[in-house]
């Protein structure tokens, strides 16, 4: 585990900007990682450098050739991170836009008729894309219900809804509200068993910073990432499409390369900053593996990250020292249960007797940054079935510490007392 290796946590935190201090508000603990992770300092440096280069791609000069090499390296690093030996990696406007494009291409490339299927656990990025392109292609959009108690959806739940004529299916790897992951390989296997030709698209946006991604093992046709949630920056999304999906007709320049997913000139800095993330994860993985194989190091980093975050989640939910955990605090309602296994860095909750907005402010007054989630077009799929109007989301990453969790639990204990006293 990261915290058990002497000096490693300090080394990790030193590689990120604004770890302990907000540039606008001052000292704070950052527990809003699901809304966007801390940025690597190397990402900030690369962004500035590439933003300043005036040369365009595809020209016969050293500067242009250097840009093309950066793009090629970035795509290779994307494939390495995803463990994608085939298919195409590409950059889009955002993770949401990438999901829309993957789903659209699958919907129009699949055989006519049939149905499109997803789950009620999904973020609206994929759910909205499925609804839009199911309607445009005249197909029903089936939504597999998730389990409110566990905050996830199972392969068997999909099995009950998938038919032989299922043309496109979406799976969310991890819910950004409940924090619970989905066994995407098992879900994909069920879909393939019943509908072998179905296109399968995975939303990995919440998962990517918390564990390894292996599209080869999943057996999917598309995967989407939002780099700003995995230590990079805003302004681009990353997608992967299988050879089968890439062969489908899609928006392209007439007479352009048939396999091209990208239109126009992309920001070379996007590719460079993704390589920065992969380089960082390789560095971290080398602390836990003697292997010189890059993929092995990435997997070692993912295992270390998962173990550290599981420790933080256990402390947050079950308590640490003499501080009770959220699961034992009177009046605290956990969204999607209190399970540790399968949870990836997120706890969403409500506190009886205190409005969620007031709880966010209370934590802010105690130097802790969290976020309110409302029963709206982003989170209504989770909150509405529970009859809730809002909740607060607390989200951690591997650079957070047990001491930060202690300070959060102490502030929550004060909030519980305040709520029990009627806000006095």
From TrEMBL:
InterPro entries attached to this UniProt entry: Aminotrans_V_dom, PyrdxlP-dep_Trfase, PyrdxlP-dep_Trfase_major, PyrdxlP-dep_Trfase_small
Gene Ontology MF terms in the entry: lyase activity
Keywords attached to this entry: Lyase, Pyridoxal phosphate
Lyase recorded as keyword: yes
SUPFAM superfamilies: PLP-dependent transferases
Transmembrane feature ranges: none
Annotated ranges, domain Aminotransferase class V: 29-408
A Pfam cross-reference name: Aminotran_5
Residue runs in coiled coils: none
Keyword Disulfide bond: no
Highest taxon above the source species: Bacteria
Protein name: Selenocysteine lyase/Cysteine desulfurase
């Amino acid at each position: 585990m990261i915290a058990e290796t002497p000096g490693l946590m300090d080394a990790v935190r030193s590689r990120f900007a604004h770890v302990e201090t907000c540039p606008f508000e001052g000292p704070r603990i950052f527990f809003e990682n699901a809304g966007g992770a801390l940025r690597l300092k190397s990402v900030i440096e690369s962004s500035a450098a590439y933003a300043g280069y005036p040369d365009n791609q595809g020209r016969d000069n050293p500067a242009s050739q250097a840009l093309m090499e950066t793009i090629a390296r970035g795509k290779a690093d994307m494939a390495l991170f995803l463990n994608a030996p085939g298919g195409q990696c590409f950059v889009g406007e955002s993770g949401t836009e990438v999901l829309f494009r993957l789903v659209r291409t699958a919907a129009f490339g699949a055989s006519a008729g049939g149905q499109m299927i997803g789950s009620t656990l999904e973020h609206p990025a994929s759910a909205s894309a499925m609804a839009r392109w199911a309607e445009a292609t005249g197909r029903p959009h089936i939504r597999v219900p998730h389990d409110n108690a566990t905050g996830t959806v199972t392969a068997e739940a999909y099995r009950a809804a998938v038919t032989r004529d299922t043309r496109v299916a979406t799976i969310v790897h991890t819910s950004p509200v409940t924090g619970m992951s989905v066994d995407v390989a098992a879900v994909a296997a069920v879909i393939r068993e019943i509908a072998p030709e179905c296109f399968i698209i995975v939303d990995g946006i919440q998962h990517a910073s918390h564990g390894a991604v292996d599209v080869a093992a999943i057996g999917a046709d598309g995967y989407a990432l939002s780099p700003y949630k995995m230590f990079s920056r805003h302004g681009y999304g990353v997608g992967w499409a299988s050879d089968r999906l890439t062969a489908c007709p899609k928006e392209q320049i007439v007479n352009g390369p048939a396999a091209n997913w990208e239109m126009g000139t992309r920001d070379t800095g996007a590719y460079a900053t993704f390589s920065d993330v992969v380089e960082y994860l390789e560095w971290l993985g080398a602390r836990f593996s003697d292997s010189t194989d890059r993929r092995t190091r990435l997997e070692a980093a993912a295992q270390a990250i998962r173990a550290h975050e599981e420790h933080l989640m256990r402390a947050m939910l079950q308590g640490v020292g003499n501080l009770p955990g959220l699961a034992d605090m009177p009046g605290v309602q956990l969204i999607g249960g209190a399970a540790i296994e399968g949870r990836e860095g997120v706890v969403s909750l409500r506190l009886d007797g205190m409005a969620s907005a007031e709880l966010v402010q209370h934590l802010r007054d105690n130097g802790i940054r969290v976020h309110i989630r409302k029963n709206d077009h982003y989170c209504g799929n989770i909150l509405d079935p529970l009859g809730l109007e809002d909740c607060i989301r607390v989200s951690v990453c591997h650079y957070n510490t047990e001491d930060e969790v202690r300070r959060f639990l102490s502030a929550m204990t004060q909030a519980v007392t305040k709520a029990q006293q009627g806000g006095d």
